[in-house]
Design a protein that fits this description.
Helix content: 40-55%
Strand content: 15-25%
Number of strands: 10
Radius of gyration: 41 Å
Largest sheet: 7 strands, mixed
Structural class: alpha+beta
CATH superfamily of the largest domain: Bira Bifunctional Protein, Domain 2
């Protein structure tokens, strides 16, 4: 019986070492340790042996079991290593093969509009300045001649974080900060960036949009300077045949204030459904800087004058490219964006 155990030990060890997979290894283990294995048959005859023989055979059976467990564990680790090696070889990258083309992105159409406008203004001697989007009420409203109880604040329904902090409703706070920093010196700046207002999300409105505001403060600045500046801008942006007109309006931070229209790009000013038959399309607002704004920023309004204007980037882009829905700018649809 002991001889049979020793022979079976060698055969089992060899079969375990020859196992090629985890399944085959488990089957080999069951063959020698399972309920129907030769080992169980030997155990069923243990009562037939004398005491000393029973003890010796029991010892050899335990050694056999331990050997099987040890050899199975060794072979299991080896099989796992071999599987990892095979997987690595099968997934190896052939560096000599041509690489895959990765589609490249491009600048967003709004970014392109801003850069085009910045280039125009820099060519006219303007500096480009930026400021925080989370702003103090002082800079966003009060220094723009909009005290706490001013009814014109209703025109810019706002996102307040606390009574003194809000998401800026225009880029005018950048102008206020720039004037304070200039300490009474002449300035000529544009301020592009995102602004936020509680507004209906529809084809022409959004709670977030982009503005580019301009400000010039110096001696002997006139409304004709504003008109010449905007006329040049619109000709560069919308074509040499584009004309502008001023209409009286009201803004708290300018006096006098104007709405600025351009000739309809679709009909050339003849009148069509797009311009509602008028031949004109409103694009921006502006005016002469209000004396109160100059005073609060440290300028003498009897010596210094200025003009300011604000342009909606989305609006000018919609006019330039014939886009009919402002929401297209923010849905990240490649079918829309790749057109530009």
């Amino acid at each position: 019986m002991i001889t049979k155990l020793l022979e079976m030990r060698e055969i089992a060890k060899k079969k375990i070492q020859e196992a090629k997979s985890i399944q085959e290894l488990n089957e080999t283990k069951a063959l020698y340790l399972g309920k129907k294995s030769p080992l169980q048959e030997i155990m069923s005859h243990m009562r037939e042996f004398s005491g000393d023989m029973k003890k010796e055979i029991g010892q050899k059976v335990n050694e056999f079991k331990n050997m099987i467990e040890e050899e199975v564990n060794k072979r299991l680790e080896k099989i796992k290593e071999e599987e990892v090696e095979r997987k690595l070889k099968s997934e190896a990258i052939d560096v000599t093969l041509p690489g895959k083309d990765i589609p490249l992105g491009n600048l967003h159409v709004l970014t392109k509009t801003i850069e085009e406008m910045e280039e125009i203004f820099v060519g006219m001697g303007y500096d480009v300045v930026e400021g925080p989007e989370v702003e103090e009420d002082l800079y966003n409203f009060e220094m723009m001649n909009l005290p706490h109880d001013h009814p014109a604040r209703d025109m810019q329904d706002s996102f307040y974080i606390n009574p003194n902090i809000l998401l800026r409703t225009h880029t005018s706070p950048v102008q206020a900060r720039t004037m304070l920093k200039a300490k009474g010196s002449p300035i000529k700046v544009i301020c592009p960036g995102k602004v936020y207002r509680r507004d209906d999300d529809d084809a022409t409105h959004s709670h977030q949009f982009m503005q580019l505001e301009g400000l010039v403060v110096d001696k002997d600045i006139k409304m004709s300077d504003l008109k010449g500046t905007l006329s040049l801008l619109m000709k560069k942006m919308l074509g040499e045949n584009c004309k502008i007109r001023f209409r009286p309006s009201y803004f708290p931070f300018t006096e006098p204030s104007v709405e600025v229209d351009v000739t309809c790009f679709k009909c050339g000013g003849k009148g069509c459904p797009l311009c509602k038959g008028s031949g004109w399309i409103e694009v921006l607002g502006g005016g002469s800087v209000h004396p109160n704004v100059l005073k609060m920023a440290g300028y003498d309004p009897d010596v210094y004058k200025g003009f300011a204007f604000g342009i909606g980037i989305e609006r000018i882009t919609m006019l330039k490219h014939g886009i009919d829905d402002i929401r297209n700018f923010y849905i990240s649809d490649p079918r829309f964006l790749k057109q530009f």
